Amino acid sequence: MKKISFCGLAFALFAATLSSLVACNNVEKKPEQSKLSIVTTIYPEYAWTKEILGSRADSVNLTLLMKNGVDLHSYKPTAQDIAKIASADMVVYVGGESDEWIKDALEASPKKGRSEINLLEALGDRVKAEEVVEGMQAEHEEHEHHEHHDEHAEEHHHHHDHEEEVENDEHVWLSLKNAEILVQKIATELAKKDSAHAKLYTENAKDYIAKIQSLDAEYRTTIDSAARKTVLFGDRFPFRYLVDDYGLKYYAAFVGCSAESEASFETIAFLAGKMDSLSLPAIFTIEKGNQKIARAILEASKSSKAAQVLTINSMQSVTEQQIAEGFSYLSIMESNLEVLKQAIK
After folding, report:
1. Helices H / strands E in the chain, number of each
2. What's the confidence (pLDDT) of residue 78?
3. Residue 318 pLDDT more than 80?
4. Residue 197 and residue 305 share a domain
5. What element of type H or E holds 316?
6. Residues 6+ apart with CB under 8 A from 323
7. Model confidence at 74, in pLDDT bands (50, 70, 90)?
8. What value does the mean pLDDT take over residues 122-150?
9. What range defines the domain where residue 268 resides?
10. Does 89 or 305 have the greater pLDDT score?
11. Which of 62, 92, 223, 311 ranks highest by number of CB atoms within 10 Å?
12. Do 185 and 83 sit in the same domain of this protein?
């Protein structure tokens, strides 16, 4: 049986209505048929695609579905979302448990020539499984062993549980190295889809990747010369790809896709002990976190007077307003580096 987590809660609602939505979409599809239609699910995909499009961005229907501050793990798709996916020429999505509903929507609305970019598939062996590290509060399990099941059923459930134990860490965009690969993948698909502007897309991607590589080098230099190599999160931990890229160690209350919001006494005590033993100057929370757990850890820590709570942005809840105000993938990653510096100095 599956763990209770944000990563498994998204689509169920819409399965029964998919076929009728697709039918409606096929009936009224005329207005902007000549414009290339691209649907992205999360902000990083949208930001990358817009950079690749460059001066062509206004000539394309580029849609960001998750732009109201609700993150990937708890997003509930609307009928309009399903219709947009059904009519799109290109769909870019994460491809994990959280957006399984997109796979369902794509299968229910086959379209000849549509490009479908699944980030996890594009990254292949670079995708990591979520891990529970020392001190981290594991997810509650839904299953129990029922003695009244017959031997065959027990065998079947054991096999089923084993298959579902591995849950991919979906937060692949928080690795600049992954971003390079994914930008190139999107650019390649765009060039195929709109060959008349292939050169523009290729050049834009090359320039953008150079900026990503430059920031990656800045992260590497900063972390290599840092006094500390450990970070601590009093929150969910979606930054595994980033810390693994640069050899940082981490402790956290929960895994990145956790639905837990209350940390146990043991978890708080363990993390407070790590704050003290490692003399850490800061504890992290992610955007939109209430800092309750982080504050509890600081209160339990002997070094709480000197330590501070820092917020680092995992880009899971970027809003339309923030985009209008100038947020960009690189600006957020640059800000994250500045925040990180305070914790590893």
Report:
1. 13, 8
2. 94
3. yes
4. no
5. none
6. 43, 46, 64, 67
7. confident
8. 71
9. 225-344
10. 89
11. 92
12. yes
Structure tokens that stand for 114 in this block: 């549509």
String of DSSP letters for 74-123? T----HHHHHHHHH-SEEEE--SGGGHHHHHHHHHS--TT-EEEEHHHHH
Kindly give, in sequence order, each residue whose CB lies less than 8 Å from that of residue 113, ignoring residues fewer than 6 positions away.
89
Residue 55 pLDDT exceeds 80: yes
Residues 198 and 260 in one domain: no
Can you say whether the dihedral through the CA atoms of 51, 52, 55, 58 is positive or negative?
negative
Q: Who wins on pLDDT, 167 or 27?
A: 167
- Provide long-range contacts, Cβ within 8 A and 24+ apart, for 114-118: 114/88, 114/89, 114/90, 115/89, 115/90, 115/91, 115/189, 115/192, 115/193, 116/90, 116/91, 117/90, 117/91, 117/92, 117/93, 117/185, 117/186, 117/189, 118/93, 118/94
Tens of pLDDT, residues 157-186? 444 444 456 789 999 999 999 999 999 999
The answer to whether residue 89 scores a pLDDT higher than 60 is yes
Claim to verify: residue 208 and residue 237 sit in the same structural domain: no
From first CA to last CA, the distance across the chain in angstroms is 43
Both 100 and 248 in one domain: the answer is no
Is residue 188 domain-shared with residue 242, that is, in the same domain? no
Q: What is the mean pLDDT of residues 39-52?
A: 98
SS (H, E, C) 210-257: HHHHHHHHHHHHHHHCCCCCEEEEEEEECCHHHHHHHCCEEEEEEECC
Q: Are residues 99 and 194 in the same domain?
A: yes
pLDDT given at position 288: 85
Q: What is the pTM of this model?
A: 0.85
129 confidence band (pLDDT: 50, 70, 90): very high
DSSP codes of every residue in 111-155: -TT-EEEEHHHHHGGG--B----TTPPPPPB-----TTS-HHHHH
Q: Looking at residue 37, which CATH number applies to its domain? A: 3.40.50.1980
What would the two tokens of residue 7 be? 């990563």
C-alpha distances out from residue 112 to 11, 37, 147, 187, Å: 24, 14, 50, 20
* Dihedral of alpha carbons 295, 299, 303, 305, sign: positive
